[in-house]
Design goal:
10-stranded mixed β-sheet; about 35% strand; mainly beta; globular; 7-stranded antiparallel β-sheet; about 375 residues
Length: about 375
């Protein structure tokens, strides 16, 4: 990709912001370089809205429940950053170039947030009040981990969307889940990912920690971390718990993994409409088309058939209502399937698994 001198200078400026002086550096077995940065000097605080921000501690943790079957382990060497420091994946110029192109592809949605576009397909359930007067303050699910076979210009994800698009305020979004995305990471690993935007534009948001904004607090788990244990079709099923919850006192949106493991948060100051809760929550899968218009596999690569070891399951689906109560999904959500090469089944409430959906498909040409 050709870039101008001005663009190159801007990339160098961004790198100086993102790559702080490390207290310790970890060279991982999967090729990433992780810098342990002073928690008070991390890139998040270079955001103009966070200049005087003080690191928060969550006061209302609502997501704390068991994970059935086998929880996924993260591909971390058993090395944690020292007390007072946090792990930040080192960013290269190539990372920023790829991320810019990837963001244009994955987030080419309208303010009405139809992820359907020339590039995106998906299958998800949507919890949304028609008049957008009902607010939601968190979402969670246990998500089966898979490693779908995607092309070099494709991605495949299983995720949660937290959104607010009530006009006239700009579109706000927080996304979290797992993803296989060679265009973003230059590999085919299944990784934890996050994304945020305060205006519907990559200019005011980014993936993971590729821009100031997300405040990292955990010393071991962080966005972009690969997932080591992957489910196999018909074999052992591994799950990862993903939760995004707005703190009642501060209004910050917290990312939690494995129930109560608080990874970090998006401060309320990053958003306008999401500062007062979300008006839409989605759970499901999203994928991108190749240049030839072909969609990759989603989940296990198989259509849902009711078998617990055959497709990507979302179990223990819960949300936080406008009374800040953690509640089961119930039957209020509706499903949307944007391509016939994927399927989604709302299983309903299952004993010991809570509210459940299964999603996936082989991909292919969505116009046929």
């Amino acid at each position: 990709m050709q870039i101008s001198k001005e663009e190159d200078a801007e990339l160098e400026r961004q790198l100086k912001i993102l790559n702080k002086f490390p207290v310790k550096t970890i060279h991982t077995e999967w090729g990433d370089i992780i810098d342990c940065i002073d928690i008070h000097k991390q890139p998040a605080f270079d955001h103009p809205s966070l200049k005087n921000h003080k690191i928060q501690v969550p006061t209302h943790i609502l997501f704390s429940f068991f994970i059935e079957h086998e929880p996924s382990n993260f591909m971390f060497d058993g090395i944690e950053c020292l007390e007072g420091t946090v792990p930040i994946r080192r960013t290269t110029k190539e990372d920023l170039i790829r991320a810019k192109s990837f963001s244009k592809t994955k987030n080419s949605a309208t303010n009405e947030q139809k992820i359907n576009s020339a590039y995106i397909n998906g299958a998800y359930i949507n919890l949304e009040d028609d008049d957008k007067r009902t607010k939601y303050f968190g979402a969670s699910a246990n998500i089966t981990t898979y490693n779908p076979n995607v092309g070099e210009d494709q991605f495949s994800a299983a995720q949660i969307w937290i959104e607010s698009s009530f006009r006239p305020t700009p579109f706000n979004s927080i996304q979290a889940g797992w993803i296989v995305a060679p265009p973003l990471y230059k590999d085919h690993l299944t990784r934890i990912f996050t994304y945020w935007t305060g205006t519907g534009s990559p200019v005011t948001g980014c993936y993971n920690t590729l821009c100031p904004g997300f405040v990292q607090v955990d010393r071991g788990l962080y966005p972009t971390l690969p997932i080591d244990h992957i489910s196999t079709y018909g074999g052992i099923q591994y799950y990862v718990n993903i939760a995004v919850n707005q703190d009642k006192s501060s209004g910050d949106w917290w990312l939690s993994i494995a129930g109560t493991k608080n990874i970090g948060y998006w401060p309320k100051a990053l958003f306008n409409s999401l500062g007062e809760g979300a008006d839409s929550i989605k759970w499901g899968g999203s994928v991108s088309l190749s240049e030839e218009g072909i969609s990759p596999p989603m989940g296990s690569g198989h259509f849902p058939d009711g078998h617990p070891k055959h497709s990507c399951y979302f179990t223990q689906i819960m949300y936080v209502n406008d009374h800040y109560e953690l509640v089961n999904l119930g039957d209020t959500a509706y499903k949307e399937i944007l391509c016939p090469r994927y399927g989604l089944t709302i299983t309903g409430y299952v004993e010991e698994q809570g509210n459940t959906i299964e999603v996936g498909g082989p991909g292919g040409n969505c116009t046929r």
